[in-house]
Amino acid sequence: MKKFLASSLLSADFLHLEEVIHFTEKAGVDLLHLDIMDGHYVPNLTFGPPLISQIRNITNLPLDVHLMITNPEETIDTYCEAGASMISVHPETTKHLHRLISYIKKKNIKAGAVLNPATPLSMLEDILCELDYVLLMSVNPGFGGQSFIPQVRKKVDRFIKIRKILGCEQVKLEIDGGVNLENIGDLSRAGVEIFVVGSAIYHSDDPEATIQKMKRVL
Hints:
By secondary structure, the chain is α/β, with parallel strands linked by helices. 34% of the residues lie in helices and 19% in strands. The chain contains 8 helices and 8 strands; from the N terminus they run βαβαβαβαββαβαβαα. Helix 4 links the parallel strand 4 and strand 5. The longest helix has 15 residues, at 151-165. It starts with a strand and ends with a helix.
């Protein structure tokens, strides 16, 4: 199955964002990952639909929008209209996850659910086959540059087994947090299909070379 590399703009230089996006695209990433934080669900603030719209205007790369916000159903239309290609939400932030996932998919946007390191896989069993993808957080959300939590590696294996048992093998597995050149190969062999990488790319000595090395590993 094809593997996808998503660069997380949370770790990029926002004073030169357009330049960063263009060299990232040229280097060969498959997706741009956009972390939306509200300072309530997670202890940080980032950006919202206006910046997503501006990013949409300067690149053809799919925009992977990760909503770390409370009550996402109240503002979901603004993210759809801003140009999101994929939208993922945390189950604990909405009262009706199935309704929200169905709504996103009706907008012809890929819909995913996100599990934090301490959130059990069982939370998604009854809706798994309705999802386009599941994002496993391998750090606690809210900040970039954190280290991979080792226990999440076992969670990847459990997810792959549950996905097969439930007959939902079309649901892609995405991982975000502490992914780097040292662990991306192992995660790929374990069955992860979408890899979100931030600081390992943008804080490296040569971001373009790092992207290309990761693509070769995948």
